[in-house]
């Protein structure tokens, strides 16, 4: 085999870009041993290039520029690694690379969820590859699992904890009894949460990741607005106290499951039994649990973010695409697992059926339970239990009702019919209790 190198341009020197270059520099010799030929970085582009020295192991002849176009256009670049994020300039980088006949590696879940299929088709037409392992779950190779490892199975259900920031916040609330705002501030101080945490705590980051995993698992092109999404802002230490009484915990669960009505998708905080493996996922870690019709249950766990875990996924993609380029076959496996994706027909979350946890806060007075029970009975919802922990705040009294399995639609209608009662101090909180894990 010829020792001539395959060459890459890295666009973006944020956390993931820096981690990627660090791995390529420090693990250069072992990467070459595995490939049988050198994998070189010949160009790096970043607006902050002047203030970010490159790792020594990359070599002294790397072209650096603040203009990504100069890096992409270089004739000695075979693969472009897009690590700037967002959906505007990043898309332009990828489209320009593909038009120039260069394969692309990306960690961009938002862009790939919104336009990945179109970008892949453009790449296929040009005979080049698109790879995106790092776009979901950081260092967990879940794309590779779905694309090749369990490709022969027919996936029935996929559950995931796909946002490390939200999982860190929830597990800190659970462990320390701290309020959401205090834990979020600490997460921002530690670098787990952005200054604007909306994408993480309101579920939008996880939603993009679920759209990608759903394409790989079920072969459907899922617009992100087809995924029912709720964030974690309303979860309190009190909810964990009650969840523990029910031998449950609370996690932001990404769910995709086949139903007789179609693929049902959601990102929302849910109660899950403490005995399940997902309940043990702590801090900023991610996990994905998959049930197949033939292979049954498999589970994947690891760091969901960070320069080096995500960088490992980027460099592994880079190695795979480099091998394919040397072998002359860039379309060996679709990045979306299926050669063609069908358009997802939105399945309304209202048909989802599960037991529910209903948490109320009220101004204490006689007859409250009777009125709430009547509203539930009107929707043919059966009460399973009523829980009330000791409280010295009768002006803002919390308690919980759990109900037997019912539909989301019935729960919403019951809560709507309660809206005119005068004793609520805040709107009721309804969380599904996922028993099928």
Strand order of the largest sheet: 3-2-1-4-5-6
Determine the structural class based on helices, strands and strand pairing. Answer: alpha/beta
Output the number of helix runs. Answer: 14
Rg, rounded, reads: 24 Å
- Distance linking N and C termini: 48 Å
Amount of helix: 25-40%
Overall outline = elongated
**CATH class placement of the largest domain:** Alpha Beta
Tell me the major beta sheet.
6 strands, parallel
Structural domains: how many: 3
Low-confidence stretches: none
What does this structure look like?
By secondary structure, the chain is an alpha/beta fold. The chain folds into 3 domains: 6-138 and 307-334, Rossmann fold, CATH 3.40.50.720; 142-303, Dihydrodipicolinate Reductase, domain 2; 350-432, 2-Layer Sandwich (Alpha-Beta Plaits). The chain has helices spanning 15-26, 28-35, 68-73, 89-99, 109-126, 142-149, 164-176, 180-190, 198-201, 204-218, 237-245, 307-327, 368-378, 408-417; strands spanning 6-11, 39-45, 63-65, 79-82, 103-106, 130-131, 155-161, 220-221, 228-229, 248-259, 262-273, 285-292, 296-303, 342-343, 353-362, 383-387, 397-407, 424-432. Helix 1 (15-26) crosses helix 12 (307-327), helix 7 (164-176) packs across helix 8 and helix 13 (368-378) packs across helix 14.
């Amino acid at each position: 085999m010829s020792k001539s190198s395959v060459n890459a341009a890295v666009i973006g020197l944020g956390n993931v870009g820096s981690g990627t270059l660090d791995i390529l520099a420090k693990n250069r010799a072992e990467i070459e041993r595995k490939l049988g030929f050198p994998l070189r970085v010949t160009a790096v582009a970043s607006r902050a290039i002047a203030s970010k020295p490159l790792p020594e192991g990359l070599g002294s002849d790397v072209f650096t520029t603040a203009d990504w176009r100069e890096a992409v256009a270089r004739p000695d670049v075979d693969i472009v690694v897009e690590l700037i994020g967002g959906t505007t300039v990043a898309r332009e980088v990828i489209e320009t690379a593909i038009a120039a006949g260069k394969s692309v590696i990306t960690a961009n879940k938002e862009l790939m969820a919104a336009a990945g299929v179109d970008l892949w088709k453009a790449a296929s037409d040009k005979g080049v590859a698109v790879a995106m392992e790092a776009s979901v779950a950081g260092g967990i190779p879940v794309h590779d699992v779905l694309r090749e490892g369990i490709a022969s199975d027919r996936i029935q259900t996929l559950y995931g904890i796909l946002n490390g920031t939200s999982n860190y916040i929830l597990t800190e609330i659970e462990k320390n009894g701290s309020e959401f705002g205090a834990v979020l501030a600490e997460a921002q101080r530690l670098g787990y949460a952005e200054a604007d945490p909306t994408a993480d705590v309101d579920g939008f980051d996880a939603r993009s990741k679920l759209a990608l995993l759903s394409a790989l698992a079920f072969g459907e092109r899922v617009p992100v607005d087809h995924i029912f999404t709720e964030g974690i802002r309303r979860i309190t230490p009190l909810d964990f106290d009650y969840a523990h009484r029910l031998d449950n915990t609370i996690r932001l669960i990404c769910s995709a499951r086949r139903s007789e009505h179609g693929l049902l998708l959601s990102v929302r905080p849910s109660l899950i039994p403490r005995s399940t493996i997902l309940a043990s996922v702590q801090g900023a870690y991610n996990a994905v649990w998959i049930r197949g019709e033939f292979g049954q249950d498999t589970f994947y766990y690891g760091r969901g973010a960070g320069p080096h875990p995500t960088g490992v996924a980027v460099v592994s993609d880079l190695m795979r695409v480099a091998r394919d380029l040397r072998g002359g076959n860039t379309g060996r496996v679709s990045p979306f697992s299926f050669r063609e994706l069908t358009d997802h027909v939105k399945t309304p979350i209202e048909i989802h059926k599960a037991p529910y946890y209903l948490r109320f806060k009220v101004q204490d007075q006689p007859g409250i339970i009777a009125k709430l029970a009547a509203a539930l009975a009107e929707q043919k919802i059966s009460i399973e239990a009523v829980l009330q922990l000791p409280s010295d705040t009768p002006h803002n009294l919390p308690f919980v009702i759990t109900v037997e399995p019912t539909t989301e639609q019935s729960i919403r209608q019951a809560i709507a019919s309660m809206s005119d009662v005068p004793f609520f101090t805040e709107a009721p909180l309804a969380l599904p209790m996922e028993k099928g894990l």
